[in-house]
Amino acid sequence: MAAPLRFVAISGSLRAASTNTALLRHLTSIGAEHGAQVEIADISGFPVFSQDIEADGLPADVTALAESIRGADGVIFATPEYNYSIAAPLKNAIDWISRARNDDGVQPFSGKPVAIVGSGGGMRTMRAQNHLRQVGVFLNFKAFNGEFGVNYFAEKIFDDEGNIVDEATQKRLAEHLAGFVDFVKA
């Protein structure tokens, strides 16, 4: 039996009851049945990006996550949509991680397969996901074009503990993960 693919998952929301982080938690719980190990990264300690801070060296948590991404088979982003775009914590983390170049000058996202999910309002974070794909063009990541987003205002998708209780959403998220696994293996 082949070893599972390892995916680093990053939520763009720092809120304790984040439905975006809840999507990632669900992926961690179903990963094994799809041949994947999903690990949620913590970006809450990243300072706001500043070249002044960078001049003193990358923060240790940035370096650690950059190395984890470099060794992963893929990355899964969960982004809310704020003002029609990517959430600031996620963009900040991407900005920091992209500065962690190896000895050949290559940043961790280069050539890395990336899937995007999101939980938000009526547009289901599709505008933010599109902006994230645009950032990915510069970073040279390989975007999985499958789309997954939920409108958590329209229906009962999550319970009070942040678990996905809607069976159709569980099924769509599992299909999205399976598609991403196939994309990475191809």
Describe the structure.
- The structure is a single chain.
- The longest helix is centred in the last third of the chain and has 19 residues, at 167-185.
- The strands form two sheets. Strands 1, 2, 3, 6, 7 and 8 form a six-stranded parallel β-sheet that branches. A two-stranded antiparallel ribbon has the order 4-5.
- The protein has 186 residues and is of the alpha/beta class.
- The mean pLDDT is 96.
- The protein has one domain: Flavodoxin domain (Rossmann fold).
- The chain has helices at residues 19-30, 51-55, 60-71, 88-97, 126-139, 167-185; strands at 5-11, 36-40, 74-78, 81-82, 85-86, 113-120, 142-143, 149-151.
- InterPro entries: Flavoprotein-like_sf, FMN_Rdtase-like_dom, NAD(P)H-dep_reductase.
- Residues 6-153 form the NADPH-dependent FMN reductase-like domain.
- GO terms for molecular function: FMN binding; oxidoreductase activity.
- One of its GO terms (cellular component) is cytosol.
Primary descriptors:
two-stranded antiparallel sheet, oxidoreductase activity, NADPH-dependent FMN reductase, 186 residues, Flavoprotein-like_sf, alpha/beta, 18% strand, 8 strands, 39% helix, single chain, Rossmann fold
Q: Which whole number gives the mean pLDDT? A: 96
CATH topology: Rossmann fold
Count of DSSP H/I helices: 6
Q: What is the CA-based Rg, rounded? A: 16 Å
Structurally, the number of domains stands at: 1
Return the structural class: alpha/beta
Give the DSSP E fraction (strand runs of 2 or more residues).
Answer: 15-25%
Text of the CATH class: Alpha Beta
| Cα shape | globular
Relevant CATH superfamily: Flavodoxin domain
Write the element-wise H/E pattern from the N-terminal end onward.
EHEHHEEEHEHEEH
CATH architecture: 3-Layer(aba) Sandwich
Distance between the termini: 18 Å
Largest sheet: 6 strands, parallel
Q: What are the low-pLDDT stretches, counting only 5+ consecutive residues below 50?
A: none
DSSP E strands, number: 8
Helix share bin:
25-40%
